Amino acid sequence: MKQFKNLVRPYIIWSFVLIVVPLFLIVLYSVTTGGNSLVNIQFTGENFKKIFEPVYMNVFIRSFKLGLITTVLCLVIGYLLAYFISRFSEKAQNILILAVTIPMWINMLLRTYAWISLLSDNGIINSLLTLLGLDPVSMMYTDFSVIVGLTCDLLPFMVIPIHTSLAKMDHSLIEAAYDLGANPFKTFWRVVFKLSIPGVVNGTIMVFLLSISSFVIPKLLGGGQYVLIGNLIEEQFISVGDWNFGSAISLLLAVAILIMIRIMKKIDPDENGGA
Amino acid sequence: MKKGKIGSIIYVALCLAFFYIPIIVTMVFSFNSSKSLTKFTGFSLKWYEALVTDRDIVSAVGVSLSIAVIATVVSTILGTITAIGLSRSRRVVKEWLLNVNNIPIMNPEIVTAISLMILFSSMKIERGYVTMLLAHICFCTPYVITSVYPKVRSLDPNLANAAMDLGATPFQALTKVIVPMIKPGIYAGVLLSFTMSFDDFVISYFVTGNGVANISIIVYNMTKRTNPTINALSTIVIIVIVITLLVVNLAPAIVKKRQERKKKAAGLEDGSLIETEK
């Protein structure tokens, strides 16, 4: 059996070159000036100081707010959906979960593109509104369109882990709670919800992480002026060319997310007991 | 109780509508005879014709498919052997590697993307097809490892020894004993890698160059103006993915049924076959 130990070697080298070194480069770029030329390297704290300028701080705050709204929406809609699905027969549950999963596998850009034709000023929803004799509403390039796009894209990431937790639950526990005199609300809160916390934690982490760092949906549905962290990073690397500042933002984003994951995992009783 | 059931059915239906309306709209309007994305003026296949004659789109489909296939094959092999090796490694190596392996999964995609972009440019590798392929292998392999490793860990550690005591070479023990037993994990890894690579936008967008574009990049560039050709492309992609998923999800049920039938035909008691299935 000892022979197989060497099988990890290729990946140790691979992961060092393509995971560890690139991360190190981001750190290096974020504390230096001079962009791509490694010859005249100079250490500086300017890149991080620049982030705290109000223009950029606002981008962080807006991304955070939008991520929070999307996550809460996904949690409320997704929890209910997962809960209802978990009460169907096992066969129906499998089909419904497959139905929730399928959109996840379809190219996100293609699905976002479809929302443009639904939400635009002379789009399908507005045509329907006019048909009903109502005034058309301008929905594209607003917070609303971005949140709709993000929620549609990320909802499955919330539903699936929560459903997994709920499906594992022993249903006789609910009966036991009733038998012991708990009302439906108390039963839900103290028994059902408590048992589904691992799913809630995982779903929340996924949705928040993905929504706060997304840049395609805000760009397509929010228009050019809609700047979130992701768009800011893209701008620095693709159009502005300030790779050092772009690296500093990326590093901050990665660290912030890592800390949030740590905090969320603390809430998860499974994680605390296990590791 | 009855009333609650109807309520929950309506809610589930509404949520599914939320998921599927954009997809259905795309598919319907791919057959539209005019350029409009809101008014259906008549049935036509002209956007499909436009699709096959558009050289950029055809080459993008080629890029997406070839990268997805190569990245899947490489990352599946790399991920599987790593997962097997990991279960025999020292604890330090194991923990370190699993943590490093988690970085691309946990990191925001855009951070992984720019980290690779910086790497390629500082190594003076010209960005294009090769860099895109390397990047795809880089983000697919961790998913293969996370889906294969739990399966390897649940194996009896003496299995390979037993095979070798019975005269198998280490390679035979690997391919004939271990790999068949971790197949479900490997299949999950293959499916994940392929679809993630095929759908990827963010990482491809940053690490590509020289005009090499996959489907996502082409769509991103085309969204700046209305172009129903995208709908035609989407429809084909959606149909292919849905069929693949249905086959993958239904195949185990069919195989199981067939095994059951075989079991019945052989008149076996329950025990023996169930053992091997696990």
Please tell me what the overall shape of chain B is: globular
> CATH first level of the domain at 54-229 in chain B: which class?
Mainly Alpha
Question: How would a crystallographer describe the biggest sheet of chain A?
Answer: 2 strands, antiparallel
Helix content of chain B: over 70%
CATH architecture of the domain at 54-229 in chain A: Orthogonal Bundle
> What do we call the CATH topology of the domain at 54-229 in chain A?
MetI-like fold
What structural class should be given to the helix and strand makeup of chain A? mainly alpha
Biggest interface reads: A-B, 81 and 77 residues
Low-confidence stretches of chain B: 269-278
Low-confidence stretches of chain A: none
What is the number of beta strands of chain B? Answer: 0
Q: What is the topological layout?
A:
The complex is a heterodimer of chains A (275) and B (278).
Chain A: H1 9-30, E1 32-33, E2 42-43, H2 46-51, H3 54-86, H4 90-105, H5 108-119, H6 124-131, H7 143-168, H8 172-179, H9 184-195, H10 197-212, H11 216-222, H12 229-240, H13 243-267, H14 269-274
Antiparallel strand pairs in A: 1-2
Chain B: H1 2-29, H2 46-53, H3 55-86, H4 91-106, H5 109-122, H6 129-153, H7 159-165, H8 170-181, H9 183-199, H10 202-207, H11 215-222, H12 229-266, H13 270-277
Helix pairs in contact in B: 1-12, 2-12, 3-6, 3-9, 4-6, 6-9, 7-8
Key features?
A: 275 residues; mainly alpha; MetI-like fold; two-stranded antiparallel sheet; 2 strands; 1% strand; globular; B: 278 residues; 13 helices; 0% strand; disordered C terminus
Task: Describe the fold and architecture.
The complex is a heterodimer of chains A (275) and B (278). In chain A, a hairpin with an 8-residue loop joins strand 1 and strand 2 (42-43). Chain A has a domain at 54-229: MetI-like (MetI-like fold, Orthogonal Bundle). Helices cover 76% and strands 1% of the residues of chain A. The mean pLDDT of chain A is 86. Chain A is globular. Chain A has helices at residues 9-30, 46-51, 54-86, 90-105, 108-119, 124-131, 143-168, 172-179, 184-195, 197-212, 216-222, 229-240, 243-267, 269-274, and strands at 32-33, 42-43. Chain A is mostly helical and 275 residues long. Chain B has 278 residues and is an all-alpha fold. Chain B has a domain at 54-229: MetI-like (MetI-like fold). In chain B, helix 7 packs antiparallel against helix 8 (170-181). Chain B starts with a helix and ends with a helix. The interface between A and B is large, with 81 and 77 residues.
